[in-house]
Design a protein that fits this description.
The complex is a heterodimer of chains A (225) and B (144). Chain A is mainly alpha-helical and 225 residues long. Chain A has seven helices and no strands. Chain A has helices spanning 2-6, 28-63, 65-72, 77-102, 106-137, 155-189, 198-222. Chain B is built from three helices and no strands. The chains are: A mainly alpha (225), B mainly alpha (144).
Chain lengths: 225, 144
């Protein structure tokens, strides 16, 4: 990310207008495309990272179907649904922030980025209450599982996957909040215009991927039948 | 130059973009309601429910990818990267499930006694319909 450090930020000075274009790129379009391909390659590795957990979850669900059905009753469907809606709305506000950065509406960009951050925080708050409830009940991964009164064995396997998948996803939300905050301050400083809004766009791509993973996590974890 | 026509189509797209994004959000929320609704109905076996849930999730993911992630009017390369990652994920899932579902066929022909897949693995009756567990769980469920 050395390009960010070397950029001269003076939006009113037209002789410096092209300073956000790195010298090794011929055009803004080329610079944007290069950044996007890099981001998409990173997103592909993210899909494979979560993919491993999804495969493991599927195999274990096939092996202990009764335990998984029984265990998922401990999850609150309404909270899961609420979090899905919150993330979908945050994806919308994120794409609106990208749109406003591109069309040089700085104030609206900042507002949309703030709403996205608020949604992310709300998501983590709900997750915190869900975790707290599970920790209290002893519904924990592996050997830490201490829930009493189970009629079906092996429910700890479900909670191993539940905590690893939602935990890794939660860390991604946290990372995304950091990235959105960074983009917020750059937008506030006036770094972006219709030619150069790559950071907003790339953070947006990342944010949508985090949303996309939750789109699969929600039915698989909360809505098993 | 083609620059001018290029810019005008972009402007056109930009003007309509918020409406499209709002429509996509609406569709995503409706599909979320459908997912929850469908999960309350028992369609034949549980497998059918999983397939329905994953199909709706894939429709939602496609909407996010095409519109929010701009794949619909982006360079094809980005979509190729995304789709190829899903193809390799499919290979991963496919081979794992094939492995899992054919494991108990790998017994010597005519063998009468049951062979535990892993030495020392606890015998859990009824827990593994397709054969003995291949890996021991990290800890046995606590007794109560």
């Amino acid at each position: 990310m050395s390009d960010l450090a070397t950029v001269v930020r003076d939006e009113h000075s037209h002789e410096h207008h092209d300073s956000s274009l790195q010298h090794h790129f011929a055009t803004y379009e080329q610079q944007m495309d290069a950044g996007k391909i890099g981001m998409w390659l990173f997103l592909a590795t993210e899909i494979l990272l979560f993919g491993g957990l999804f495969v493991g979850f599927g195999l274990m669900q096939a092996r202990y179907p009764d335990a998984f059905v029984q265990a998922h009753h401990h999850l609150d469907k309404n909270l899961g649904f609420l979090n899905t809606v919150v993330l979908l709305v945050s994806s919308f506000t994120m794409v609106m922030a990208v749109h406003c950065a591109k069309t040089e509406q700085r104030r609206k960009t900042l507002v949309y980025l703030l709403i996205t951050l608020a949604c992310a925080a709300a998501f983590l708050c709900v997750k915190y209450f869900e975790y707290e409830h599970k920790i209290h009940e002893g519904l924990l991964p592996g050997k830490f599982y201490s829930h009493v009164g189970d009629t079906v064995p092996h429910q700890f396997v479900f909670f191993s996957f539940y905590f690893m998948m939602t935990g890794l996803h939660g860390l991604h939300i946290l990372g995304g909040m950091g990235a959105i905050t960074w983009v917020f301050f750059r937008a506030k400083r006036g770094d972006f215009n219709h030619k150069y809004y790559t950071p907003v766009d790339l953070v947006g791509l990342y944010w949508h991927l985090v949303d996309l993973i939750w789109i699969y996590l929600f039915p698989l974890l909360y809505l098993i039948s | 130059m083609s620059e001018t026509t290029h810019t005008s189509t972009h402007d056109n797209h930009d003007a309509n973009a918020p409406k499209i994004y709002a429509a996509v959000l609406g569709a995503l929320l409706i599909l979320t309601f459908i997912t929850v609704g469908a999960s309350k109905i028992q369609f034949g076996s549980g497998m059918v429910n999983v397939v329905i849930a994953l199909t709706i999730a894939t429709v939602k993911a496609s909407l996010v990818g095409l519109f929010f992630m701009h794949l619909i009017h982006d360079k094809a390369m980005n979509a190729i990267i995304l789709v190829s990652s899903f193809i390799f994920l499919g290979v991963f899932i496919g081979f794992c499930y094939t492995d899992q579902s054919t494991r108990d066929d790998l017994k010597p022909v005519g063998l009468k006694v049951k062979v535990p897949a892993v030495a020392g693995a606890p015998a859990v009756p009824g827990a593994a319909p397709t054969g003995a567990p291949v890996a021991a769980p990290p800890a046995a469920a606590p007794h109560h």
